[in-house]
């Protein structure tokens, strides 16, 4: 045990043999002297992303135009990109697509689950989940297609399930504020015991910590493509359907890309077999080109090594928060156990004058790029492929100086969310 962690200790941790070091070299550096701890908002850019996008713009758009649909892999990218990251979330190679957005994919899967579970109509959603998840469910209920039930805890979930007639339960694997990770295996088992289906949002876990969709017997999952998965700003999202459900109902959005014979141009819809029926419209070719740069890196990543590295980094920053900032007005806001934490580590700002948005702005001014979420969460989004232990040491030192001096009280930082 080390009685007090030093900068040298952090540097030594970075110098250990690391099976992911070769992957880290595939990402572009950020601004000088800037520490990026915002992978929970947007992941780092792969070095190859500009060239991948440029190739589509130049060869695909300017020169080939419509021929690009047959000369390039544009039509296959939703499947091939999904195959590149399926192992990262513990899914079968052909069970994942990359398409549309998280919100659209969530809508599709909630609707699909309701169709499979009919005539059951009860849709269970966490009350304090990220707003879009709740909003999508509310829209379905408002249309008269489900009875919406909100829960606040595991006990609430158990009680609602015990009442019967639950069709679908939608859960966020990781809380977007505290970073608390739910026990996917246990909760999915509970949901199945009551005859319901489980939809998991992996936006704050996929590409950061261990996810085992097939092992946990999850029915459905979505994940943002622009966070830890590094697909780029506004990137298409991940969609997963368990094989036993893939062909069990029509998709919620019946589009030509999900037709069994896309270019047969039949007037009547016939859903494609497998997860491909969840495709709807034309692929986002330029966005997928950026995604492909990340996909090439993810194909080389051992998810066990990824999880181990994230554990080392997140446990270090928890220790540093306490060692360097104890008594300075912050408290640990994330669980201590690695298995109960997602991609980011949160601290809570305390005291009557606390203004976490101002504190976050002060950190950004000191070139530590973080994010905040009301009412009191300051989030350090650790990317296991890029973040270094020394980065965390430097970030916590800058945080300590801001807290000691009270610089966050500067009016320039007042009440600005990041």
Q: Which tags fit this structure?
A:
418 residues, alpha/beta, seven-stranded mixed β-sheet, four-stranded antiparallel β-sheet, 13 helices, 13% strand, globular
How is this structure best described in words?
This protein is α/β, with parallel strands linked by helices. The protein has 13 helices and 13 strands. The protein has helices at residues 7-15, 21-24, 49-64, 68-71, 77-85, 102-117, 131-142, 154-163, 184-193, 285-298, 303-325, 356-365, 389-405, and strands at 35-36, 96-99, 122-126, 147-151, 166-172, 197-201, 220-223, 237-241, 330-332, 344-349, 368-369, 371-373, 377-381. The strands form 3 sheets. It has a 7-stranded mixed β-sheet with strand order 2-8-7-6-5-3-4, with helices on both faces. It has a 4-stranded antiparallel β-sheet with strand order 9-10-13-12, covered by helices on one side. β5 (166-172), α9 and β6 (197-201) form a beta-alpha-beta unit. It starts with 6 loop residues before the first helix and ends in a 13-residue tail after the last helix.
